[in-house]
Design a protein that fits this description.
Length: 387
């Protein structure tokens, strides 16, 4: 009986304590504390020198390309180069069996000597009969005969000289030589084959790649903008733009090669709305081959002042480039911008920003448009964005 009273007393005490705790919780309530504003680093756009530049993609092309053809018929006798070599101008690359052409040249030379002898004899006879006719010792018909012989033999001499020239020319064609300093392809025929029996007998190809051409295109919009800029600066509109061209290969950083713009096409392609341009690039090591993809940067020869922001502050989406800015109430907003050329690790801003705007340069991932942030306007930020 006593144990039952003790158990009931303990149960009553537990209920009283539990009720007190629940009442205390209900009286105090739960209060929500918003998280602190995200900390970001902001800076004003800086004013600096901007060089207008445009970037393109293009490809390389040999300045000269020649198909080495067999211009006379005969057996291919010798191949005097290693495939893929750089060869000098005038080097003999192929020899086509020359013996028959040497014989034809000698035959033509002999015919010329015979024609000259006949011409000399007829000239002598014409003079002699002319003198005899003046002395009434020869008839006019004899003089006319030797006049005809003299003129006919002179014509034979001219014909023989032409035949000798052709024979010597054909003899020279038995040696196929490099027309310029360049890189020669593989041979298409092996020694022992008959070549030259048709115009399609191409023995090899040779490219001149020092210097080498770089072809690229410019859009109609950029072209008109450049022309307007030329007009505003008093330059002759229609003249090739006087801009340096910098070239970089696909595996290179930046634009280490310097080229010279030397040609613009005479009309805009109506199907693509582009104009073809060409630059000449020095290639003394012959390491740049035709057909390579290249990156091209063209800079204007003058500079201007413009607003600059760090490239890390610029973001992109489907609507284009934008930055995040903070207003006087520390509220973040998205600001669409128009980018100009890149200057080192900064972007020039053509429109969308003022010099007094606070641009978020660090902590963009923590900044949400429409929300407040805690901006840090420290001096170290200015140093980091100085060009």
């Amino acid at each position: 009986m006593c144990a039952h009273r003790v158990l009931s007393l303990r149960k009553s005490l537990f209920l009283i304590v539990l009720s007190g705790l629940m009442l205390s919780a209900c009286e105090s309530g739960n209060s929500y504390k918003p998280p602190p504003a995200a900390r970001v680093t902001v800076a004003h756009p800086l004013m600096g020198e901007v060089t207008d530049a445009m970037e393109f993609t293009g490809n390389t092309q040999a300045i000269y390309t020649v198909k080495l053809r067999a211009r006379v018929e005969g057996y291919l006798d010798k191949v005097l180069f290693r495939e893929g070599d750089i060869v000098e101008e005038g080097k003999t690359l192929f020899v086509i069996q020359p013996e028959s052409y040497i014989a034809k040249a000698k035959e033509a030379e002999a015919n010329l000597l015979s024609a000259k002898a006949k011409s000399m004899h007829s000239e002598t006879e014409f003079k002699r009969f002319t003198l005899l006719m003046k002395q009434d010792a020869a008839a006019q018909t004899d003089v006319d005969h030797w006049l005809y012989e003299r003129d006919a033999n002179r014509a034979d001499v001219m014909g023989a000289e032409a035949q000798l020239a052709i024979a010597k020319l054909n003899l020279s064609y038995t040696q196929v030589k490099a027309p310029f300093h360049g890189k020669v392809s593989r041979r298409y025929y092996d020694p022992g084959n008959v070549v030259g029996h048709s115009e399609e007998t191409v023995l090899a190809e040779i490219n001149k790649i020092d210097p080498i051409y770089v072809y690229f295109t410019i859009s109609e919009r950029d072209l008109l903008r450049i022309r307007q800029s030329q007009s505003d600066r008093g330059e002759a509109v229609g003249a090739p733009p006087r801009v340096p061209i910098q070239v970089g290969l696909a595996n290179e950083t930046g634009y280490p090669h310097q080229a010279t713009l030397d040609y613009t096409d005479i009309q805009v392609d109506p199907t693509t709305g582009t104009l073809q341009l060409r630059a000449t690039l020095a290639n003394p090591s012959n390491n740049i081959f035709p057909g390579l993809f290249v990156r091209i940067r063209a800079e204007r020869p003058f500079k201007r002042q413009g607003l600059l922001v760090p490239e890390d502050a610029v973001a992109f989406d489907q609507a284009g480039a934008y930055v995040l800015v903070v207003d006087d109430q520390d509220v973040v907003s998205r600001r669409a911008i128009t980018l100009g050329p890149q200057v080192n690790k900064q972007f020039a801003i053509e429109s969308g920003l003022d010099a007094g705007d606070w641009v978020i340069v660090n902590g963009q991932m923590r900044a949400i448009p429409g929300k407040k942030v805690s901006p840090d306007k420290g001096a170290e930020v200015k140093e980091s964005v100085t060009p």
